[in-house]
Amino acid sequence: MSRRLWWALPPVALLSLFFLYPLALVVQQSFRPDGGGASLQPYADVLASPAFRRALWTTVWLALGSTAGCLVLGFLLALVIAFVPFPGARAVARFIDVYLSFPSFLITLALLFIYGTTGMVGSLQFLATPWGVLLAEVTYFTPFVMRPLLAAFAQLDTAQLEAASSLGARAPRIVRQVIWPEALPALAAGGSLVLVLCLNEFGIVLFTGAKGVTTLPTLVYGKAILESDYPGACVVAVVNVLLSVGLYGLYRVVSRRAGA
């Protein structure tokens, strides 16, 4: 037992140094107003701010909408890649692995050539709206749902599909009764990952140039860099962390009770 503890010390020390200590500094700063001392006044000021409430609502609905879009689109695309034979299906599946390594701003920059002010349909200025941000997030995060789905579909016994087809079941019924139950754990994993990533997404909102769209991460940037309000920025950051950790905890509880 003591040997295991010794082996655990280096990763715990690195985690404390590079993550827990900076996080503790952020929490500490959130209780220190500019006037000095320790106070809950920064929390009172930020939580009572209409800008914070708007940013919180925008963050939540964008994250939920993007996650829903990624789940629907990712499931349909994964079905096509895994079960509809077409030339290049394997190459497309491999491209998804490469796509996951792309930075979010790169995909947003590509969308700017279509929906930006100087793009092919620039007169619409679609990408600078909340719906444009939603489209950019769905475009970027859908492969994060497709990857676990493709892995789950690869383990699916094709004999079940052949048996269902030989018994006269059509494609919608096969999807509903055979494929869907196998896809649920992968959908839950991919959806929870996308939800947390969307809650903390900064680059997409920044690069779309949507000035009327303020999320919690962009609010942290605005308070810290533009307003030099570091206690307020730390308060928003703490709320963002608590929201992400709370959603992760909820996912763990639900998945445990569901037997996933």
Please give the alpha-carbon distance between the first and last residues. 30 Å
Radius of gyration: 22 Å
Instruction: Report on the biggest sheet.
Output: none
The CATH class of the domain at 53-210, by name, is Mainly Alpha
Structure classification: mainly alpha
Whole-number average pLDDT?
Answer: 83
The coarse silhouette is: globular
The overall strand count is: 0
The name of the CATH topology of the domain at 53-210 is MetI-like fold
Low-confidence stretches: none
Percent helix among the residues? Answer: over 70%
List SSEs in N-to-C order: HHHHHHHHHHH
Please tell me the CATH architecture of the domain at 53-210 by its name. Answer: Orthogonal Bundle
The CATH superfamily of the domain at 53-210 is MetI-like
The proportion of residues in beta strands is under 5%
Number of helices: 11
Task: Describe what you observe in this structure.
- This protein has a domain at 53-210: MetI-like fold (Orthogonal Bundle), CATH 1.10.3720.10.
- It has 260 residues and is an all-alpha fold.
- The protein is globular, with a radius of gyration of 22 Å.
- Helix content is 77%, strand content 0%.
- α3 (50-83) packs parallel to α6 (130-154).
- The protein has eleven helices and no strands.
- It has helices at residues 2-30, 41-47, 50-83, 89-99, 104-115, 130-154, 158-166, 171-199, 203-208, 216-226, 230-257.
Set out the fold topology.
Layout: H1 2-30, H2 41-47, H3 50-83, H4 89-99, H5 104-115, H6 130-154, H7 158-166, H8 171-199, H9 203-208, H10 216-226, H11 230-257
List the main descriptive attributes of the protein structure presented here.
single chain; 260 residues; mainly alpha; MetI-like fold
